[in-house]
Design a protein that fits this description.
Length: 561
Amino acid sequence: MERIWLKNYPAGVPHDVDADAYPSVAQMLEESFHRHADSPFSVCMDRWMSYRELDRLSARLGAWLQGQGLAPGARVAIMLPNVPQFAVTMAAVLRAGYTCVNVNPLYTARELEHQLKDSGATAIVILENFAHTLAEVIDHTAVQHVVIASMGDLLGAWYGRWITFAVRHLAKMVPAYELPLTGGRQVISFKRALALGERRTLTPARVAPDTPAFLQYTGGTTGLSKGAVLTQRNIVAATLQAEAWFTPALGKIGDLSRANSIAALPLYHIFALTLCLLAIRQGSRLTLIPNPRDIPKFVEVLKKRPFHMLPAVNTLFNALLQNPQFRHLDFSQLCVAQAGGMAATEATAQQWKAVTGATMIEGWGMSETCAIGTNNPVNSTAFSGSIGLPLPGIDIAIKDDAGASLPIGSAGEICIKGPNVMPGYYNQPEENAKAFTPDGFMRTGDIGVMDEEGYTRIIDRKKDMILVSGFNVFPNELEQVVALCPGVLECAAVGVADDKQGEAIKVFVVRSDPSLTEDDVVRYCHEHLTGYKRPKYIEFRDELPKTNVGKILRRELRDGK
C-alpha cells in the first residue's frame, strides 16, 4: 500500500526504524546504562538516581531473581506506583530473562487475582501499601516469591527511612496484612533482595526477539482483561519509533541528557511505559510524580526545574490548567505537550496554548501497539483534532468488516500493522483469530477516516469499550460485577460524555428487590471495582431495551432511549 502520510513527516524523521537493531530490550537498556552512566536518570522527592545506579541496582535485583530458580521467561508481576523501584524492577526482570507483568496498584482483590492467575506469574514486586490486597488472593495464584518494597527504599538512608515512617505511621497508608508462607512461598523486602543480589552475578539473558518482554493487560470483551503479548522486538521497535518522532522537537535542547520528562502518568500504563523507555534510550531525565492527583504538590515539583516533555491525558491537562499557581510557571523550555490515552478536546488544547504557549500534540495507540500508533507532527503549531500520522514503519488502513481496504475518505475500522504491533493475546486463540485481518492488520475497534494527507480522524467506536481518563473499561466486566450485587436482576453499562474524564460510566439496573438503593450499588462497586471502573451514574429501570434474541441494546441506552 502507498504510504501517503510520509510526505507530511517533519524533516529528519525516518520513514522506517530497524526493529532488529537489538535482539532484546535488555541489550538496548544496557547500552544506554553504559553510555549515560554519569548522567542523572530520575528524581523523586528531590532524591536523584543516576544511570549508573539504575544499572547497578537492576543487576542486583536481576541476580537475586535468577537465584530463585525461576524458569526462563517466567512472569514477574510489578505492582508499583511512580517510584524509583519501578524502573529498577522493570530493568531487572528484563535483564534476567523474564517477562514483566504490569499491574495497576489500585486493583481490587478480584482484579488482581485474575491477572496473576491468567499470566501465571510466579513472582511479584509490590509496594507494601498494596500488600493487603495481595494477601487476600495469593493462595489462589502461582506466586511463590514476594518482594515487598517500601516508599522510601531508594530515597536515601535517612530521608528514605523518614518517608517510610511517615507513610506507615503518620499518613497510615499501609493497611495491616499477613502473607501466608505455605508451600515454600517466600516473602522478602526489596532492600534485602538487593543486598542478597549483590553477592551474586547477573547472568546476561539471551532471549530471542520474538519472546515476550511484557504482558500488558487490557480490557476484555469477555468481561475479563487479557494480556497483550509485547515481544522484545515490539518494544525495541516502539522505543525507536518514539525516538525518531520526538527527537526533532527535543533537538533544540542540544544535549538530550538535560531533557527532563515529567512522569505523572502511571508507569504501569503503556503510554507512560513507552515514554519511560524513550527517556532511557535518550539518556534523558525523568521526574517521577507518585501522586499526580495532588495537583498543588505536582505544580510545586514543576516549579523546581525546567521541564521539556509533559505527556498527559486530557483530564490531567485540565486539572493543571485549573490550578492558579500552574499559570505562573516558566514554560519557556517546554518542547512537547503530548496528549494520549484518551481523546483530547479542542477547548482544552486552546486553553493550554493560551496559558503555556505550547501546542498540544495528540496521538493514538493501544496496549496492543506498545502505545503510540499515530501521532501529530511535533512541529505542529495548532491542534488538529486528528490522531495524526502513522509513526515510522507503521501502516494504517481503513477496512470494512470483511477486511477489504476502503478508499481515502471512507469511514471504516482503523487497522494497523507494524513491528510494534503485538503478535496476539496471551492464551487467547479465539480472540486472536478475531483480532487480525487475513493480510495481517490488527483490528482496533475504532472507526475512522483517513484524508488525502494521511491524517486519520476517529469518528466512532466499533466496540462498546468505555474510555475513562485514558483507561479502557469494558461493559461486560462491569455488568458481571454489578449483576452479583444483591437485589440486581439485570444491568447494562455504557459510556456517556464527560467534560473531565472524556467518558463516564453509567449503569442501568433492573431490580429484583424493590428496596435496593443507589447507595447499595455504589458501595458494592466500591468494594469490587477499582476507582476508574466505578459508575458515576446509576439509573433504575423497569426493563432494558433488547433485541429479539434478548441481547441488551447498549446503543439505545447511550442514545437515551
